[in-house]
Amino acid sequence: MQTTSFIFFGLLAIPLIAFLIWVIKQDKRKNYIGLVLLLIGAVIAAYTIVRLDSSFVKEKMPAAAPKASSFR
Length: 72
Fold this sequence. Notes:
By secondary structure, the protein is mainly alpha-helical. The chain has helices at residues 3-26, 33-60. The protein is elongated. The relative contact order is 0.11.
């Protein structure tokens, strides 16, 4: 993954973790089934993003810079 992908992923992951911690503290009945499902969904989404990003970068990035043209 490229640096911009890490930054974008970090900006999404950090608020998600903070939100999950806040939701756990707010839950009076301590019903963790919904939180577990939400966490599993977030892990699957993160895995999918990483896989798609790495395959996109491998396929779409040029191997070398194009030759410079000579105007002689």
